Amino acid sequence: MKSIPVTSPLLPPLEEFLPYLEEIWHSRILTNGGSMHKALERELCDYLGVEHIALFANGTLGLVTALQALRISGEVITTPYSFVATAHSLLWNGIKPVFVDIDPLTMNLDPAKIEAAITPQTTAIMPVHCYGTPCNVEEIARIADIYNLRVIYDAAHAFAVRDEGGSVLRHGDLSVLSFHATKVFNTFEGGAIICPDAKTRERINNLKNFGFVNETTVVAPGINGKMSEINAAFGLLQLKHIDQALERRRAIAALYRSLLDPVVGVRCPTPFTKGVANNAYFPVLIDDDYPETRDVLFQRLRAQGVMVRRYFYPLISEFPMYRGLPSAASANLPVASDVAQRVLCLPIYPDLSLADVRLICELVIAASEV
Ligand SMILES: Cc1ncc(COP(=O)(O)O)c(C=O)c1O
């Protein structure tokens, strides 16, 4: 039986990568902002339509450093419906996460519920553009403005996403990307912070290099968050293939949608139509009128070789280091708790064939026809 993974990395032909390696060997510069790193920064700014970027070894170090750079402390409002690194970055900074429920349509932080969670200790909001679907950025900005809060977007899923005004990464004080192997754009491991100005970028660059500002001066207990030349080189190569990869994702998502939309009990995500989506994931919600529960369908598809994932289940707020927080109570998070019980992410990646998409849909439809 063949196995279909939930994702598979965008990996250009190996021979295309060899000239980059030769250049690195020739230069003998392996890290610390070499020519590959500089070139990737330039090309990413062009591609994404942003002005200032700081590359990182991974997205988690980007989140931890973004909080440091803005000196965030006290309490931060965030979503329980995300990958655990979102909230972990707060704990690594000694910040208390305050979980707020999500919107059932976008699965992002529900702005209508943010104000009730603000206390005198609140200093920032950390929303996530979950699955690459933009948050309600206007409403979040309005609330942040009234209460003088900073906004750091976890934009790990939002590479290349654009709304009507341009890159979705321009919103908030900072946006943090992940270039992990499973992401739309990968550098094996990697990440980046999108910054509003050169000065903030410089501060972030110092923080990711142990806090050094020059050879002999250290101004903060910075971390080693630098991206290596080899990762940056791979990013440069990825950029040559990214448009084609995004096009493939679009075709796959469209086929899933056309085959699954009519299926009773299977809810496809509301398509993002006010800009350019990246189709980073294809989540579906399994409703009560589907003949199987989400978990029975999950087990059946896995037994049939389709490696679906339950992103995001359990909620972050259910993990031991968070569940004692008052905001982690499931009564405070009814929508997120319900969605986490219903969600199933179907395979989506550039090399997935449309025949396999049809096969996966047939397996889902099979139960609904029993
Ligand atoms: C929403 C979200 N935030 C943060 C991260 C962490 O990124 P990284 O794996 O690059 O550290 C990920 C994925 O890994 C993620 O999905």
From TrEMBL:
Keywords: Pyridoxal phosphate. This is dTDP-4-amino-4,6-dideoxygalactose transaminase. Pfam families: DegT_DnrJ_EryC1. The keyword Cytoplasm does not apply. Belongs to the DegT/DnrJ/EryC1 family. It comes from the Bacteria.
